[in-house]
Write a structure and sequence with these properties.
homodimer; about 350 residues; Arc Repressor Mutant, subunit A; Beta-Lactamase; 3 domains; five-stranded antiparallel sheet; about 20% strand; globular; DNA-binding
Amino acid sequence: MLSERQLFILQVLIDDYIQHVEPIGSRTLSKREDMNFSSATIRNELADLEDLGFLEKTHTSSGRIPSEKGYRFYVDHLLSPAALSTTELFSIQNLFHEKLEETERIFDQSARILSELTNYTSIILGPEALETTLKHLQLIPLGGQQAVAIFVTSTGHVENRHVMLPESIQPKEIETLVNILNEKLSGVPLAELHRKMDEELALVFQKHLMDHQQATLFLADLFTWGRKDKVFFGGKTKMLYQPEFKDVEKVRILLDALEEKAIVERLLTSDRDGVSVTIGHENGIPAIKDCSLIKASYSFHDKHIGTISLIGPTRMEYKRVIGLLDTLSKQLTQLFNERY
Amino acid sequence: MLSERQLFILQVLIDDYIQHVEPIGSRTLSKREDMNFSSATIRNELADLEDLGFLEKTHTSSGRIPSEKGYRFYVDHLLSPAALSTTELFSIQNLFHEKLEETERIFDQSARILSELTNYTSIILGPEALETTLKHLQLIPLGGQQAVAIFVTSTGHVENRHVMLPESIQPKEIETLVNILNEKLSGVPLAELHRKMDEELALVFQKHLMDHQQATLFLADLFTWGRKDKVFFGGKTKMLYQPEFKDVEKVRILLDALEEKAIVERLLTSDRDGVSVTIGHENGIPAIKDCSLIKASYSFHDKHIGTISLIGPTRMEYKRVIGLLDTLSKQLTQLFNERY
DNA sequence: TGTTAGCACTCCGAAACGCTGAGTGCTAAA
DNA sequence: TTTAGCACTCAGCGTTTCGGAGTGCTAACA
């Protein structure tokens, strides 16, 4: 049977390891505020816990890490599941209310197929990201800090989203806020809401709102919505199989860059006909300097409305890939013009 | 202006580099059948091509690799796009015919949200993979090698799929084939079609068909359909952000394992209530030995019909994650029981 | 009897070193 | 113009060295 102290040490050690992912020694533990024993004492306890199989050393003179048995014990006895945060709850509930449109499905699938066939990562820019603008915005308080944001778009689409208001904001201020937003942001493409916010509205808010910092944070969150769903990726993990990405760091940098809507738009926006190839530095974005990008746009009524693309190392299999993009983009064009 | 020989060398070098991703020296090139010059001559040409900016060295005494300018030239002048293969064409055309059902959408989204909230990879086993069985199969030749395969499932669902017949097969044989398949496979769960094929039918075909090898290959392809879409992943790349996966090789092994339907089913099938945790070796699958798996099942009429799960390093944030899975699985259960 | 201080010992990991082999540039001969 | 020969370069790999973090053990202390 484990003593109180052993339980405590085990718990602290596992918690710590889960966070920092590094072996923990007796000295580190003894330095904690709530640890009133010397490192030597702790050392003894650690040795005991190791004998019991709850801890391991990575080598003779390293600190301890939890063993599988340790985790097992932790999960079974030391754990009180954390309650869900309100954001988490909201996300889950929203799941079932969102609708995915037929066109979105096609892009999603296209992205998958494209990367499946080529073994490169594919990026597709859906049409709305370029076209649809915000028409009207409303914010309906639900009591407490909760509220619903309602977005009406130029296409008549209505979307709503649960949000958390910043603590410090006054009802009066919410009104001001929404007014400013509507005035400044109606007509702005959804995709640009976020940027616009950052660049142009920060100053305005400083004038009109008490706690503009909190408000800015809140709005940044609010407009992550604009980013939603109009960019479709396929095969993000394909890059791992390219030898030039054997360094995880590189993959991360690239993936992080692709998460940035601004970068993706800059990369993919194109008004050229047919397939175009961008090699290495030509794209002008440092994080993607050793990648090539091959893209083709699809059109509606002879106007380019979106782009499909593949991204891979500069030494791409250009041969295979170009034909594929060409075909797919033509199919998409055809689809749009038949359907609408 | 580049000489014929220079063009040739450039082309060969880039093609080679695209394939093997290693600097290429004069000697390697001179060894090719179609290269009738000594390494010294080639060395001179390479030096010239480098002066012109088409090639680079990674260090003073390395072989050459293409520069960005080299790729540019290659793409613009040396490239004849390869024609699409028939498979590729089919995949693209099928894109627009497949329907994604509402439930599938929910799982797909759930997987995304789950991994977004936790920063771990999520795996969701949709209900059909476990439940639905094959009722009837038909194969309709379209002329040439093309055909449509029609699957009728126990739930009355009908799906069709373009396939390519093996070259050597006779019309008569197709009939035999379909008969055997229907006899042996009706009542078999969709997810097991593939396995069943491999294990039990290979012998039968050897007896009845001329070219059973080709036929087996063809069927393997045909039944990749059974695997389709019933497993949903979210955040496959999240693992890259965990320090224990800083070695790309590890990530690959894990991801490859998760592509194996058999493994995923073995991992996720569970008849326990509530959230269960599997730590490290407990799961019994070598490729996943340093991962923990947290799963919860959802039910329909008090019967478990599917599983949602998260996979991450053994030092997972169990605390946060358990509550989440619990909530989401309950929501799914509720959804199913309300809806059907 | 439980706790603590001190000390010799262990071993990882980073930095420094040396060697090998593939590949180059240059020169001179064919 | 092409080729052979030779001295030179340097990445990559294995080896060595060394400091530091952490241990186990012993002996003194409360």
